[in-house]
Amino acid sequence: MDYRFTDKSVDSTVKKEQKDRRMVTLEDVAKRAGVSRMTVSAVLNRNLTHVRVSRATQQRVLQAATELNYFPNAIARSLRKKRTGIIGFYGGLGYLNASLPFYAEIIGGLQRGCDLHRLDLLVHGTFPRRSVKDIYAELVDGRLDGLVVHTSADDPLVTLLAKSHLPVVAIADAIESLPSVVVDDFIGGKLQAEHLAGRGHSQVLYRASDRPLISACLRYDGFMECAQNYRMKVTTWRGLENIANDAKAVDAFCEVLKSCQATAVVCWNDMSALDTLMICRDRGMNVPGDVAVMGYDGIRTMGSLFHRLTTIKAPWFDVASRAIALLVEQIESKDENLQKEVVLPVELVCGDTT
């Protein structure tokens, strides 16, 4: 048998609290001020062009709104303005780890760009076993005014986004079908080769990315073109960014390093360079005495534990912030001839690893 005891005083208190917690509407404000809903809407939205409201009535409406703690309904406002004030960020290269220095710079730049334009940022995750159609449906469901993406050109989602109504800007890796904000990766690769050649290195091991990223390919092409001019012998090694804790992978890497007699390891990004520094430390190789190490990204925390890494500084914070500005231009303008690609310069940062 089920016994239920009801305290009417408690029940009425709960109902009153629930009533008090409900969202205050324009009708509530109108009732308190003793005016019509249309008058309240005109006053609170500062749309007094077609509605004549006396100053006394305006003050009464504003006072009623304050007393009731009224705030505009964001959904209703977005429907009226056809804007939500929200920009999305989607990373299609796997788990988006915001603790990694690269993504920390990117997200920081996106937030800065959004702040400058009074927008909110919504970060979309990538979840296992989700279909491309499911992800696409979520991105274009009306919550976003625009989207910034960091993904590869062969991501099937790119084709769908390029044909959608949603304004989209790619960052870090240029995508032909989308406006993009990138750094000058080709020049960055050349700067790496010029620096090592200037230090007298003629045999180099290049740690290339194992992913088909446009940025990585441009860095490699720039390096190889310049290295050829200096008659530098380059051995290419492709693998994961982090192998320092994998003994077999480290053995294979060190064997290649030894067999090609390289005096320098140049890496496609700073994560690979930091990994190389850890391998050298663990295997008793002096840097830069036995082997020089060079990276690419220039993020301050990279390699700072036991070395000041020689690297190419890429302004990722500025890239992300500029992407928001380009996206806002795209949202607010109907001009189809907006700038398709923004390329920011890179610079050599000399540390103690070369």
TrEMBL record:
<feature type="domain" description="HTH lacI-type">
    <location>
        <begin position="24"/>
        <end position="81"/>
    </location>
</feature>
<dbReference type="InterPro" id="IPR028082">
    <property type="entry name" value="Peripla_BP_I"/>
</dbReference>
<keyword id="KW-0804">Transcription</keyword>
<keyword id="KW-0805">Transcription regulation</keyword>
<dbReference type="Pfam" id="PF13377">
    <property type="entry name" value="Peripla_BP_3"/>
</dbReference>
<dbReference type="Pfam" id="PF00356">
    <property type="entry name" value="LacI"/>
</dbReference>
<keyword id="KW-0238">DNA-binding</keyword>
<dbReference type="GO" id="GO:0003700">
    <property type="term" value="F:DNA-binding transcription factor activity"/>
</dbReference>
<dbReference type="InterPro" id="IPR010982">
    <property type="entry name" value="Lambda_DNA-bd_dom_sf"/>
</dbReference>
<dbReference type="InterPro" id="IPR000843">
    <property type="entry name" value="HTH_LacI"/>
</dbReference>
<protein>
    <submittedName>
        <fullName>Transcriptional regulator, LacI family</fullName>
    </submittedName>
</protein>
<dbReference type="GO" id="GO:0000976">
    <property type="term" value="F:transcription cis-regulatory region binding"/>
</dbReference>
<dbReference type="InterPro" id="IPR046335">
    <property type="entry name" value="LacI/GalR-like_sensor"/>
</dbReference>
